[in-house]
Structure formats: structure tokens, C-alpha cells
Write a structure and sequence with these properties.
Layout (H helix, E strand, L loop, with lengths): L1 H9 L3 H17 L5 H17 L3 H13 L9
Helix pairs in contact: 1-2, 1-3, 2-3, 3-4
Amino acid sequence: MSLLGQTLGELGKYDEAERLLLAAYEGVQRNPAAAATSRARCLDRIVHLYEARGMTDEAASWRAKVGAAPQPAKAGP
């Protein structure tokens, strides 16, 4: 759901993207088995969405949560 939200955001469908990204984040928060990387990816996608929309306060708020979450491992070249 998070990846779909990111894709919709890239297509400029911000309202739909926001709804999906927030629902995906809530889902991983409620699921104790969800990987920390899933949480971090959701947070990162939410931050990018708000930055793309020019919603700096919301982006900053979510960015603070990103700093508190374990970051996903970067893929190699």
C-alpha cells in the first residue's frame, strides 16, 4: 500500500497518495511483526509527499519521526 501511495504521489494524485500512505503507516504501527524497515520506508514516503506538496510543517513533523525510526538498508549499485 505504501508503494502504491508513493506512485500516486509521483503522478500528482496527492489526496489519494496521502490516504494510502497514512493507512500503510498505521498498519505497520499496529503490526508488531512488521519490519522496522517497513516503518522507515512509510515514514520516508510520507515526508516526500508532504515536501512535494509544499507542506513544510507536516514534512518536518514526520521527518522527526523518521529520525527516531531505524533506517532501511540502502541497496547496492
